[in-house]
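name: query_chain
kind: protein
chains: 1
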Amino acid sequence: MRIKNLPAASIEFIAVGSELLTPHFQDTNSLFVAEKLQELGRELSFKTTVGDRLDDLKLAIKIARKRSWLIFICGGLGPTEDDRTRQAVAEVLGLKLVFRRDILEKIRKRFETRGLRMSPSNRRQAYVLEGSEVLENPHGTAPGLWLERRKQIFVLLPGPPPEFRPMVENLVIPKLKERYGQVQVLRSVIRVTGAGESLVEDLIKPVYRSLPERMQLITLAAPGDIQIRLSLPVRRKPQRDVAAFNRVKEKLLGLLGRLVYSTDGEPLEKVVGDLLRSSGKTLACAESCTGGLLAHRITSVPGSSDYFLESIVTYSNESKLRELGVSAELLRQKGAVSEEVAREMAEKVRTKAGADYGLSTTGIAGPGGGTETKPVGLVYTGLAFSGGTVVVKNMFSGNRERIKFQTTQKALDMLRLKLLEEIGQTEKK
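structure:
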C-alpha cells in the first residue's frame, strides 16, 4: 500500500451502527468532528455510514485505508455481540486483540459506584488493539483507541454523543494539534437572496476561470437562500494568499451586487436587525400565511427588542377585520390573498404599532387551498414606510415549510433593501 502518496487533506469518518441506516437515527458525530477539524484548518474528505455486519465493516475500513491518512471510526465499541469495530480493525490490519485487566477493573468500579453489578459481557470492552493507545472515557464504559500504523492514524471512539464529543474535544483534537499543528485558513461565507441557483451560477462563472490553486469555492443552494463558501489555506507566503483571497471575494461581491446580504455567514434576520438598530428604526409585522414565522426569525436575534415592536398573526379574515381593521369590502372583493389586502395589512400594523416600518405576508402555503387563479405558492409581501407602501407578488414552490420560509426571506429582504436605500440617501446629504 503506497501510503506516501495519500493527499494531505484525506481525512475520513466512519459511522458504525445499523440503526444509522434507518430513518429513525441520524449521525451527528461526524458534524461535530468536521467542526473541530475546521478549527485546525483541516477538512473531512469522506464520510461513510456502515451497519454492524463484520464483512461490511471490514470493507469500509479497507476502502478508508486506501484513501485516507486519518480515519475516525465511531461506534461499535459496546459490550454486545453486534459491537464488532475492534474485531474488524484487528482483522483488516492483521493485529491481535489484547486483554487489559486494568480497563476491566475501571469498568467494574464504574458500575460499583452506581450501585450496579457489571455484566460479564462488559469484558469485551477490555480488549484493545495491539499497539494502540487507550483514550479514557470519563462518561461511559467503552474506552477509545488511538492507533498509528504505517503513517496512518485510526481513532476508535464510542458512538453516544455525550461520550464521543468530550473525547474528541479534550483528547483527540489536542493530540492532533500538538502533532501536526494548526493551519490558518482564510474563510468567508457569502449569502445571497433574491435570485435562483442557476442565475447566481451564471453571474459568478467568470470567477471559476481565475480561481487560485488550493482555493475552494462551494455553492450551497436552498430556496430563498444561497451560500457561497470560500476557503484558502495559508501557506508560506501569507500576504500573497490574503491578497488572492480578497481578490476573489471582491470579484464575487461585484458580480452579485445587492443580491449579497452577508459576507460572514450571518442570517438575514441578523443583518436586517443590525440595520434597524444602526438607523434607529422600528418594525411591526402582520402575518397571515407565515403564521408567526417572520416574528420568530426576527426575535431569534438577541437584542431584537431594540427595534421590534410587535407582530400580529391575523390568519382568518375575521382576525384581519378585528385586529387590523382591514376593509371588509376589500376582503370580499379581492380576497385575503391579494395585493390590496397585503397593502392594508402592512399599513395598518405600522400605524397601530407606531412603527417606522410595517411588513405583511398573505398567501397560500399549501398543500391544499389553491385554485386556478390563486395557486399554491402565490404569496404577497408588503412593506409600509413613511413615504408609501410596496407590495410584491411572489410565486414560490416547494412544500408548506419551504413556502413559508421563502415568504419570510422575501419580506426581510424587501426591508433590507429599503433600509440600505434610505441609509444611502442619508449619507449623500
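note: The CA atoms of residues 365 and 400 lie 5 Å apart.
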